[in-house]
Design brief:
Distance between the termini: 139 Å
Shape: rod-shaped
Number of strands: 0
Radius of gyration: 41 Å
Helix content: over 70%
């Protein structure tokens, strides 16, 4: 038996209503995904900023260590020179006796 126009109209209205509800739910889900994506992007940007700060601090640390290493080797060479000078002085003093 064929459906009447009123029955078909009710079916179409029900289908449209269902599709509208699904579309609304999908839109809400999309909004949640967009919010999560924005938070994720913000976290990534914060991580990059923190990484840049840590990288800069590490580079400063490396420069300081290089400076201290140069100073330490300079001090070692100075002490070695002083020790050799002392040894040479003692040798000369012992040889003159």
């Amino acid at each position: 038996m064929a459906k009447t126009i009123a029955e078909l109209d009710r079916e179409v209205a029900g289908t449209v209503s269902t599709m509208t509800e699904r579309l609304t739910a999908t839109g809400k889900g999309l909004d949640q995904v967009q919010t999560s994506l924005e938070k994720t992007i913000e976290i990534v940007h914060d991580g990059r900023r923190e990484f840049k700060v840590l990288k800069h601090r590490f580079e400063d640390y490396v420069k300081r260590m290089e400076i201290w290493d140069n100073r330490r080797w300079g001090l070692i060479m100075l002490m070695a020179g002083a020790l050799l000078s002392l040894a040479a002085g003692l040798i000369v003093a012992l040889v003159r006796r």
